[in-house]
Write a structure and sequence with these properties.
Homodimer. Its cofactor is Zn(2+). Zn(2+) binds at residues 146, 149, 159, 162. This protein is α+β, with helices and mostly antiparallel strands and 675 residues long. Helices cover 42% and strands 17% of the residues. The chain contains 21 helices and 26 strands. A hairpin with a 4-residue loop joins β18 (600-605) and β19. The longest helix has 31 residues, at 373-403. The termini are far apart.
């Protein structure tokens, strides 16, 4: 394996039209941070680069919908994302943004270099144009009937109902979402990067030179290269973005896919005046952390851009992850089906490392995986609390109890003691091997094996029993246990930095470096420890149930938003309506009808009389909910016997598109008539 002088680690720029969710974290940011923290602990020269991707059509659509400017949208989400990353301990050396002056200049200069070197081709194509708004339309500004499934409201690039990828010209009855006008095709000129020109190089560089890449990354690249590459537009007609810096390009901006990866370069420029040594020196190892939807851009398109420009190094690895689902359903920003990082940090204070742990332990490294709240709870309670936390607590509490909170002297270590300590360098080697091949799940298992080793050692040696007859042997046992605990503090830092800091405080140490893992003398005899406290706490069922209820509410809201309203009924005459006696009534008593799931028996006061009504609302209202409420009733409906009870009227309810019922109410005295 080649030895590099320095490391440049980039993480995919999150799109600033919404917050960051657990899918982003599991796919990109947690693995990236583990890798960077590991390199720092080893004393390597490494910088971690990220920032907000702030241009493109979705930003303009959100701004138009909210009645604000695109800049206001990206300002809001840039701050939410940046603060959330910091809250989770994602340790970027810089978190920049593509609306920065440095980026604007860098992207413009990059385009001009390729333009002046003749690396682009110009093509005139036909694109939809809104004759009323007098502007070209991006695909997302065009809707129509899907030619594949017939669904209305399909976008010019995709039908969200059937999932088909579309071209705007395929839509039936296309309409502009800006003005509602029917768009017309109009010629427009754009610049294209001829990827086909770079295809021979890319085939050799990837298919022959990087067979060590993850199978999902290598396979997707091979599929694209085998299918043949085509020129790709680097500009588009839009008023939000970096203007194309050549004459005759008024109203055109750099396409966001071209603009965004240059953001890694501009962010590095803002970080250090020595930026070129990270981007242009072959002794630098560049690694891109991304999700699978960005593989083509980082493995094929961006390398082609860098090679066309000249002078830049290419990525050594692109360890892309697959997708993380949520409760067996695809995470979706538009459907609000996600666990948002900023909300998690508010709702689970002090539990940053629990999320980091679970997302790493369940990472979608080679295939899509699923996050569930029950698994989150189980991993916290049965692994972090019962294994890691339990070992540390026992080792420190026993030391405090028997040796005045000072590391005892091990005067006569046994063969078993030496055998246990000899496992630590072996575990260190396995952690390193897995991190350096981007297998972070396996690396985390090895970290937890240190805690398992410690737990087993304490269970086997039983110092709480031995102390009664052999305090000297107990001293050796607890010395070994504390050395294991100190090793754990180092090994877990890349994965759980908050826990590592807390454990170091309990050990009364400021820190160690990576190479010290495996040492049996990290804590000298007589060293006074800090105050022992619980590293983790159990997560109760009620906490998980609250999160599941939150998701269920989201699901119901989505169903209601997507459900079709009931069609209008046939026209009636006023005399027909006038026959109905609708009155305000008050519920005096309520009880469930025995042997039924949906029925309530209500005693009501109509102002004229007291009467009984049987109503199928028990699914939505309990008897306690109903007593004392004012309701609307159809008082002159013919009586009907239901489950042996004569029901004298009907309660008026509102039904939403999903069929959910809500009481219809009126702010009027009991007995008032509605008409």
């Amino acid at each position: 394996m080649k030895k590099y002088k320095r490391h440049l680690v980039t993480s995919a720029l999150p799109y600033a039209n919404g917050p960051v969710h657990i899918g982003h974290l599991a796919g990109v940011y947690v693995p990236s941070d583990i890798y960077v923290r590991y390199l720092r602990l080893k004393g390597e020269d490494v910088i971690s680069i990220c920032g907000s991707d702030e241009h493109g059509v979705p930003i303009t659509i959100k701004a138009r919908k909210e009645g604000v400017t695109p800049q206001q949208v990206v300002d809001r989400y840039h701050n939410i994302i940046k603060n959330a990353f910091a809250g989770l301990g994602i340790s970027f050396d810089i978190y920049s943004r593509t609306t920065s002056p440095t980026h604007r200049q860098t992207a413009s200069d990059f385009f001009l270099k390729l333009y002046n070197d003749g690396e682009f081709i110009e093509q005139t194509t036909e694109q939809y144009f809104d004759p009323e708004a007098q502007q070209f339309l991006a695909d997302r500004y065009i809707t129509g009937t899907c030619p594949k499934c017939g669904a209305e409201g399909a976008y010019g690039d995709q039908c969200e109902k059937c999932g088909s990828t579309l071209s705007a010209t395929e839509l039936i009855n296309p309409k502009s979402t800006i003005s509602g006008a029917t768009p017309v095709l109009k010629e427009t000129k754009h610049w294209f990067l001829p990827l086909d020109k770079h295809e021979p190089f890319l085939k050799e560089w990837i298919l022959e030179g990087h067979k060590d890449w993850k199978s999902n990354v290598y396979g997707q690249c091979k599929s694209w290269l085998d299918g043949g590459l085509l020129p790709r537009a680097v500009s588009r007609d839009l008023d939000w973005g970096i203007p194309v810096p050549v004459a005759g390009a008024e109203g055109k901006v750099l396409y966001v896919w071209f603009d965004a990866p240059i953001g890694y370069i501009s962010a590095t420029k803002d970080l250090t005046p020595d930026w070129e040594k990270y981007w242009k020196d072959e002794q630098t190892k560049m690694v891109h952390f991304i999700g699978k939807d960005n593989i083509v851009f980082h493995c094929i398109v961006f390398p082609a851009m860098l090679r066309a420009h000249g002078g830049y190094i290419l990525p050594e690895n692109v360890p892309a992850n697959e997708f993380l689902n949520l409760e067996n359903d695809k995470i979706s920003t538009s459907r609000n089906w996600a666990v948002w990082l900023h909300e998690y940090l508010e709702e689970f204070p002090g539990k940053q490392d629990v999320l980091r742990y679970v997302l790493c332990a369940n990472a979608p490294e080679t295939k899509d995986n699923d996050f569930t709240w029950r698994d989150f709870q189980a991993r916290n309670n049965s692994e972090l609390v019962a294994i890691y936390g339990n070992f540390i607590n026992r080792a420190l509490v026993l030391t405090s109890k028997y040796f005045d909170n000072k590391v005892p002297l091990a005067t006569a270590p046994t063969d078993y003691d030496r055998e246990v300590l000899a496992e630590l360098p072996k575990i260190k080697t396995e952690i390193e091997r897995n991190i350096e091949t981007y297998k972070f799940r396996e690396a985390l298992k090895e970290v937890m094996n240190i805690a398992r080793l410690g737990n087993k050692y304490l269970a086997d040696t039983e110092p709480w029993k031995v102390y009664k007859t052999d305090p000297e042997r107990t001293a050796a046992i607890l010395n070994v246990s504390l050395q294991i605990a100190a090793n754990m503090a180092i090994a877990c830092e890349p994965f759980m930095p908050f826990t590592a800091a807390k454990l170091l405080k309990m050990l009364n140490k400021t820190g160690f470096n990576w190479e010290e893992i495996g040492s049996a003398s990290l804590l000298e005899a007589g060293h006074e420890l800090g105050v022992a406290e619980l590293l983790f706490e159990k997560i109760e069922d009620s906490v998980v149930e609250a999160q599941l209820a939150k998701l269920e509410a989201t699901k119901q809201a989505n169903e209601a938003a997507n459900a079709e309203l009931a069609p209008a009924k046939d026209t009636v005459q006023f005399d027909d309506y006038g026959k109905m006696d609708i009155r305000v009534a008050k519920v005096l008593e309520a009880e469930r009808v025995p042997k039924t799931q949906k029925l309530l028996k209500l005693i009501i006061d109509t102002g004229l009389d007291r009467r009984t009504i049987v109503s199928g609302i028990a699914e939505y209202y309990s008897p306690e909910d109903m007593v004392g409420r004012q309701i609307l009733v159809l008082a002159n409906l013919a009586p009907r016997v239901i489950k042996g009870i004569e029901s004298q009227g009907m309660i008026l309810m509102a039904a939403d598109p999903t069929g959910r019922l809500t009481l219809a109410v009126a702010d009027a005295p009991v007995g008032s008539t509605i008409g």
